[in-house]
Amino acid sequence: MSSTDPTPGDSFGADPIVYMPFMESSPRARASSVPAAARIASSDRLFDAYRPPPGVPDEIFQASGQPRPEAEYLVDLLEEVGAEELRRRKQLADAAFLTHGITFSVYFEKSGSERIFPFDLIPRPIVAEEWRRVESGLAQRIHALNSFLGDVYGRGRILAEGRIPGEVVDSAHGYHPQLKGIRPPGGVYIHIAGIDLVRGANDELVVLEDNIRVPSGVSYVLENRAVMKRIYPKMFPAIGVRSVDEYPTRLRAALTSVAPKITDRPRIVVLTPGPFNSAYFEHTFLARRMGCELVQPQDLAVWGGRVYVRTTRGPEPVDVIYRRVDDDFLDPLVFRSDSLLGVPGLVDAYARGNVTLANALGNGVGDDKAIYAYVPEMIRFYLGEEPILGQVPTYLCLREDDCRYVLENLDKLVVKSVDEAGGYGMLMGPQASKKEIASFRERIKANPRKYIAQPLIQLSTCPTWTGEGVAPRRVDLRPYVVTGRSSWVLPGGLTRVALREGSYIVNSSQGGGSKDTWVLDGGDR
Amino acid sequence: MIARVAESCFWLHRYMERVEATARLLGVNFSFLLDVPGDGIERWRPLLVVAGVEEEYIERVGSEYLNDEECVQEYLVWSEQNPVSAWNSLCRARESARTIRETISLEAWTTLNRFWLWMKSPESRALYSAEPSTFYERMRENCQLFNGVCNDTLLHEDPFEFMRLGMFLERGAQTARILDTKYHAVGPTGEEAETPVDLGEWIAILRSCSAYEPFFKRSEGSLTGRTVAGFLLLDPAFPRSVTHCLMRAWNFLQLIAGENSETGHRSAGLLVDLLTQMRTKTIDDIIHTGLHAELTSVVDQVTVICRAVEEDYFSGRIPGEEMMRELAIQG
Predict the structure, then answer these.
(1) A113, A209, A423 from A508: Cα distances, Å
(2) Chain B residues near any Cβ of chain A (below 8 Å)
(3) Binning pLDDT at 50, 70 and 90, where does residue A263 land?
(4) Which residues of chain B make contact with A10, given a CB cutoff of 8 A?
(5) In 3D, which of B43, B85, B90, B84 has the Cα closest to residue B67?
(6) Residues B145, B151: Cα–Cα separation, whole Å
(7) Where does the pLDDT of residue B237 fall: very low under 50, low under 70, confident under 90, or very high at 90 and above?
(8) What angle do CA B312, B315, B316 make, to 5 degrees?
(9) Which of chain B's residues have a Cβ under 8 Å away from the Cβ of A302?
(10) No. of helices (H) and no. of strands (E), chain B
């Protein structure tokens, strides 16, 4: 597979006015024979006063205030840029995001309310060795989850053998029994996954959450990188950062590989709910970069068990739909009959094997927060392997013992509702008021299936520009896994950062921003 | 191509053409006012008339302001109440572009987005107040830049063809509207001798259409209503003349319809009819029957053609789908 960008000149290439200044003051160009320390005024230094919070792992620094050995060079290079220059480049970067319309729409505000996703110019490095472990751990996890989906919508072996209680599956919000017996083309359910990882107290990256329905954010990974390459042109070759550009090519190839067998040249489309969706920019981005059409539900129709797109020359067949629409709004004949959104008959066409949906239908049962607790068991059951990546201990309130423990320790735990995302429906025990805890106690008692609890994970910090200087902020990491005939992990992923001091909530809807993630190639280029 | 996307392409360029036409009309009105004695004619109302918003303006702003320089400009450029204000047209153009972001080029998108961000910014507002002529010129340049960037960076296939079709149909109608300001400002055009006010108006109209110099290459020094109207309506080579725009629209409609297409007959038929009318008439015929009536008829016919294009290409009907909808409703 070619790793070249399928659309050269795209992604910021056409904006010399904005970017020329970066070129002329690149860090390497200024690193002449004068020693760095001599040229940098102390007020311009970034990291002199930086200390991670006690007991919290940091992505770049050790507790002593020294950089991690593998990040020393990066820290030197950033110091050469200096605070003043960083401030200036930050403004240019923000202006570039705005001009290019790399924004998300803000709901319930006047039209024209588009915001840029706050972006931090200090990258988050990951060393090659750690990344290799993450890569194989993610591929393993997706393999097991995919087998699980095939199983629960097929023979149900794992349930029959009592490895996962049937009631956990039956009561999962994303489980659709009407899909039983439907096997998606190639047996692939999870074409695109975004798995959230966090670094816990033992310094290891562990899985916090699986997103295998409609994970978003990958466009920001690619656009962030494009901006970073302009901002730090010399740093990339100097440090050795793995490229992220081949994502769209990989995705397109994966989708093509699982097209229905009825055609040699499958027509692939990206299905968006429309321009008012907050992730609309990403939908257009993916369609553009894969070179395929972006359609809205009303552009599609089903006739005779085949999906068609309405064109200026009449209906034309569609073979693969990368859909960015939730199950519930895909087909009013099957899911929400109160909703006329969607494409009537789509599920029928899917069931007949005439169209590939990516991701497949019914994946919600696989990333349910209660099912999450059983993923290590799935890995053992389907693959006969031990999980490579750890995950967060999870108490299921539907289990009596767990529930009792949770109710007794609400002030120490994080409680999550199993079917809400985006940081909503959560109780952060250690930071909550007595009243909030009491209210959650009642909610859990009333509906134990709906809640799980986990110990509070001290998310690691990463140095982050605050406008005043550099300070530690909490981060997580969402790598993306693309699966066709086999799985491929995008080197890096979206590092989300909680921009508010002391906050653990990294979601963009609640004051989160992002960073570029640099998987270091460890010299094996 | 997807019918909805084709529709957005078509409208994107129609909206941009409206932005440009408004900037042209307003920008030139200034130079015209400097050239003619003020009292005899209405200065600003004709612009409302040709934009088709006089009635709403009277309702929302008031008839006493019909010739108020500031109010009329404000209404035509910025007003959110005025559906065809330049600002509203630009917002709709941008929204259309955003809806088909995967279809247009990055360069086309950033050109348009930058224009929109500039119009939203305090700088554009300051320029509008301090130097209106420069402001209108900047608007025009942005529109021309957008057209050029689209031409140079998009694949020349269906989406592009729908864009150009929309652009030329709208431009032809806008030229007819601009030409008609003369009627609303100083009265009908006859065959008798014209006053200095008439001539000042004709020059302003030529300038509105970037036609001043091209016109004198054709007219051999004769500046009359007959020669100006003849040029702007009928000259096949002038890029903003009604005839030229219709010819180009016809070229693109043929490309869209293709050789064996079964759709498109109605819009193509209507466009051929109008084009034939334009090419068989002389300017003397037109002035004899009435220039104003001819211009009104052109604008109306273009509206009908645009509707036919929508029916022929954008409805995207699929056989049997009404039945599927029925099933969905019945659950």
Answers:
(1) 15, 16, 9
(2) 1-6, 91, 95, 98-103, 106-107, 109-110, 113-114, 117, 120, 158, 162, 256, 258, 261, 263, 313-314, 316-321, 324-325, 327-329, 331
(3) confident
(4) 106
(5) B43
(6) 10
(7) very high
(8) 100
(9) 324
(10) 17, 0
Judge whether A100 is closer than 8 Å to chain B, CB to CB.
yes
Each residue's pLDDT tens digit, B112-135: 999 999 999 999 999 999 999 899
Q: Which residue of B has its CA nearest to A101?
A: B113
CB A301 within 8 A of CB B318: yes
What global pTM score does this model have? Answer: 0.85
How many angstroms from the chain centroid is the CA of residue B20? 7
| Identity at B312, one-letter amino acid code | D
Nearby residues of A91 by Cβ (< 8 Å), 6 or more positions away = none
Residues of chain B neighbouring A101 (CB-CB closer than 8 A): 98, 101, 109-110, 113
Q: Residue A275 in contact with residue A324, Cβ under 8 Å?
A: no
Residues of A in contact with B329 (CB under 8 A): 340
Nearest one of A171, A131, A150, A44 to A477, comparing CA atoms: A131
Integer CA distances (angstroms), B253 to B15, B150, B170, B264, in order:
19, 18, 14, 8
In the block, residue with structure tokens 């150009």: B164
3-state secondary structure of A357: strand
Amino acid present at A270:
V
- Indicate the residue type of A328: D
All domains of chain A, ordered by start, with CATH?
A: 16-128+217-243+474-519 (no CATH), 395-455 (3.30.1490.270)
Both structure tokens of B299: 């604008």
Query: Tokens 């999450």 map to which residue?
Result: A372
In A395-503, at which residue ranges do the beta strands (DSSP E only) sit?
A: 395-396, 413-417, 426-428, 451-455, 461-465, 470-478, 480-483, 487-489, 494-498
Other beta carbons within 10 angstroms of residue A217's beta carbon come to 18
- Cα A294 to Cα A269, A503, B3: the distances in Å are 6, 37, 12
Q: How far is CA A282 from the centre of its chain?
A: 12
Contact, B74 vs B55, CB < 8 A? no
Q: Where are the alpha helices (DSSP H) in A202-317?
A: 218-231, 235-239, 247-257, 280-290
**Contacts of residue B139, Cβ cutoff 8 Å, sequence gap at least 6:** B19, B20, B22, B23, B27, B86, B119
Please tell me the total count of domains within chain B.
Answer: 1
For tokens 């023979």, name the residue. A155
The residue of chain A with its CA nearest to that of B104 is A288
User: Do A425 and A417 meet the contact criterion of CB atoms below 8 Å apart?
Assistant: yes
Domain containing B309 equals 3-330
- Residues in B closer than 8 angstroms to A299, CB to CB, are 2-4, 316
ipTM comes to 0.80
Give the model's confidence band at A7: pLDDT under 50 very low, under 70 low, under 90 confident, else very high.
very low
Q: How far apart are CA A172 and CA A167, in angstroms?
A: 8
DSSP three-state, residue A516? strand
